[in-house]
Amino acid sequence: MEENKKKIIVGGIIAIVAIIIILLVLKGCDKEYKITFNTDGGSNVASLVVKKDGTIKKPEDPTKEGYSFAGWYYNDKLFDFNTKITEDMILEARWTLLDASVTGVTLDVNEMSLVIDQTATLSATVLPENAKNKNITWSSNNKNVVTVDENGHIKALKKGTATITVTTEDGKFTATCKITVTESVVSVSNVKLSGASSVKVGNTIKLTATITPSNATNKKLTWTSSDPKKANVDENGNVKGISEGSVTITVTTEDNNKTATHRVTIVKNETTPSTPTNPSNPSKPSNPDTPTNPSTPSTPTVKEIIINGPKTVEAGSTIKLTATIKMSDNTTTTKTITWTSSNSDIATVNDDGVVTGKKAGSVEIIAKVDNITASYDITVNAKVEPPKEISYVITLTRLQDSFGNVNQYEITSVTADGENFDFKAFTYNGQTRLPSHINSTLNKKVVDENIKTATIVLNDGTSVEATVVYKVREI
User: Residue 302's CB: how many other CB atoms inside 10 A?
Assistant: First the structure.
């Protein structure tokens, strides 16, 4: 009896376990999985629900402007729709970019200045990037001033202006660049004098002025003598001795007012016979009671000017120069000094020797006293501006497909402080976007927010990180 009870209990347990297993199997067979289709900017494809080990039917291919559909992929492999579904899945659409018609053309610069014989190259970009026909032609509206070849290489021929035009073969879209050609001017940077240092009374010597650089445009000179009663000089540097003594010959360039000096001593001409005394009129003996007058000492002249002071100044700032005037008798004096600058666009100097920097460059400050000059080289450094925080605004054109979905944005302008900037690229969260279409998943919420990780790469090559505000304009 007891044995029968045990058999009944065991049998019941087995039956219960069997029922549970059957229920679990039946429940597993009823499990459902969701299949989601990510069209990557294409037309919408509805999600599907399928039971475990079931298969799905391939949906109608999505569409996307400018692209052809390349298939559905799962884990980077083309999905086989005969595959039995055993998990939730996201199938991703892959696209192939189609060749497009030309929509425009741009040039890397819209304005340029050249000097005669200078060359440059213009770069054209045909839009969009996937345009099928990117053939272009170049032309100049004034070939006497600027020429351009089939590759955008330009050459300046003579002074004037010309407009270079690039034209697309497809659609005849154009872009232009204005070229201004100026004459090449080579400025005088220095002048030196050479020649004999003495001349006899009645004779002539020639001094030579050497201008640096040798190809300077304006080589006109002015010659002066510190004492024309002792020696004079003509416009060609010919110095004629008049009477015994010493003079300083100064030459000054018309361009940049550069000067050089040369000391010349006029000596007695021994070949000039002295006037004979009249024998019939013997000289009277001197009166011993009348003392002779001592000879009048010669007046000392300026021998040298020595300039001291800082060698650099920042644009917008000032420095003070001082000058020591040495005389021919080795004394110093406090004569009035005339200060000038070789280039007042770079730096100016006042009557007290205070130099004001104007813009970056090199300049000579000249001190002059009694036709004696000295020069002092000054370097003007550009003013260091403190970093400026700029908020750039990127305006995007919102592009929609036929279903009203926002698939792309196109950068239409970049501005800062109300000024529009030309740019090469825009980097957002590590991804570089060109001025053409941006394939993006940006939604309305993101576009209206400030993005602090954006970087603008301007056409001058600088890269600026700034707070960027997107503004979407409906088309």
Answer: 19
Contact 365, 321 (CB under 8 A): yes
Which range among 7-21, 166-180, 386-400, 436-450 shows the weakest confidence by mean pLDDT?
436-450
Quote the tokens at residue 193.
Answer: 């004098």
DSSP label at residue 283:
P
Tokens linked to 305: 């000017």
Specify the DSSP class assigned to residue 201.
Answer: B
pLDDT digits (tens, 9 = 90+) for 337-383: 999 999 989 999 998 889 999 998 888 999 998 888 888 999 998 87
3-state helix, strand, coil in the chain (%, to 5): 5, 50, 45
Partners of residue 364 on adjacent β-strands: 377
User: What would you report as the CA-atom Rg of the chain, rounded to the nearest whole angstrom?
Assistant: 46
* HSE-up (13 A, CA, CB side) for residue 142: 15
- Which position has the token pair 């219960």? 16
Nearest to 241 by CA among 210, 302, 196: 196
Contact 239/233 with Cβ under 8 angstroms?
Answer: yes
Q: What is this structure's pTM?
A: 0.30
**55-70 pLDDT, tens per residue?**
999 999 999 987 889 9
Strand order in the sheet with 231-233: 204-206, 238-241, 231-233
Return phi, psi of residue 174, to 5°.
-130, 160
Neighbours of 2 (CB within 10 A): 5
Q: Are 401 and 65 contacting, i.e. CB atoms less than 8 angstroms apart? A: yes
| Rounded-to-integer distance, Cα 290 and Cα 468, Å | 101
Q: Quote the pLDDT of residue 100.
A: 81
Q: Determine the Cα–Cα distance for residues 193 and 411; give it in Å rounded to an integer.
A: 63
Helix (H, G, I), strand (E, B) or coil at 391: coil
Burial class (CB in 10 A: 0-12, 13-18, 19+), 195: middle
Three-state secondary-structure class, residue 7 = helix
Share the mean pLDDT of the chain.
80
Helix (H, G, I), strand (E, B) or coil at 17: helix
The first and second tokens of residue 173, run together, are 């879209």
| pLDDT at residue 457 is higher than 50 | yes
